[in-house]
Automatic annotation (TrEMBL):
Pfam families in alphabetical order: Lar_N, LarA_C
GO function term, MF aspect, one: lactate racemase activity
Record-annotated Lactate racemase C-terminal domain positions: 157-293
Organism annotation: Clostridium fessum
Biological classification of the source: Bacteria, Bacillati, Bacillota, Clostridia, Eubacteriales
Name listed for the protein in its UniProt record: Uncharacterized protein
Sequence ranges assigned to domain LarA-like N-terminal in this UniProt record: 18-82
Amino acid sequence: MILPLSVTSTFFFILNVRKIRPTSFGTRVSVNPLAVGRKVICIGGTVHHLMAGYGGGRKSIVPGIASRETIRMNHERALDPEKPMTDVRVGSGLVENNPINLDMREAGAMVHVTFGINIVVDTSSRHSGLFCGEFDKAWQASCSYVQKGYGLPIDYQADVVIASCGGFPKDLNFYQSTKTLFNASRAVKEGGTLIMLAECPEGSGSKDFFDWIKPFSKGCLDEALRASFTIGGYIFYVACESIRRSKTLLLSSMEPELVRDMGVRSFKDMKDLLAEVDFNGKDVYVIPYGGSVLPQTKEAYERICREAEENGGAK
C-alpha cells in the first residue's frame, strides 16, 4: 500500500527517527532510520539559499531526512542570538561563517553518504550544470558554479530598482515572490525605491507565512518567532526587514490591502504606480529575473567567489 505523502512524512517525522548525536552547535540530530548504517546517495538542486547560503549537498540530510526537532534547532540559528534581527552571518551565498550551514555540514557528515549529485538549472528551469562525486566536494563545486552564474556584481546600490520575478510560477503568490524581494533589495540604496512586478494570482500565499502579520501588527514578531519558529514565519520576518530598507511598490493583481500592513504599496495599474516614483536624476537598475539573480557589491561578489573556490569549488 502506498500512503499519501502527508501521512508518510508525518510518520517519519514523528514516529520513526533514529537519534545519532548532537552537533558542536548543540543541535540534536535525528534522521530517517533507513539512512543509518547504510551507504547513501544524495541528489539535490543547488541555488542561492536565504538561510543555508546554498541549497543542495548537506541539505539532503538536514532538512531532507531529519526530524522536526533537528530542523527547528538548526533553522532557529537564522536569528541573531542577542538582537531582534536576523543573524548577519546568515544569507544567500554565505557559507564560511554561517552557523546554519556549518551545523548542517556537521549533521550531514553523520550519515554515510558515498556519492553526491547536484543539479543547477537556468532561469527557465532547464539543466545547466551537473556536479557529481564525493559528497562535499561535488556540492562545493556546484556552489561555485551558482555564485559565478547567478551572482551579479554591481558598482553601487541604485536609487531605484525595478525587478520582475521572472514570470510564473515564481510570482504565483506573494510568498513565492519574496525571493525577488530579498534579492532586489540588495541592489537598492537604503531609503531608495524598489518596484516589484509580481502577478500573485493566488494572493498572499501560505497561511503559515501570512498569519505572522498578527504578531507583526502587535509589535511582537521577533518574540513570537523565537517562541514558535517556522520557515514561513522566518520568510515573513526577513520580508519585513527588506521592506523597511526602502519604499517598496508592487505591481500585482493581488488586492492591495493584503500587503498594506507589511509596508508594501500595491497597485494594479502601472500608471498609478509610476506616478509615485521620482526618476529625475536617479540611478535605476532593471532586473528581469529577480528570483534568480543575486546582486552583490563587486567586493562581496569577489570575496564569495574566492571562498567558494578555496573550499573546493570549480575553477
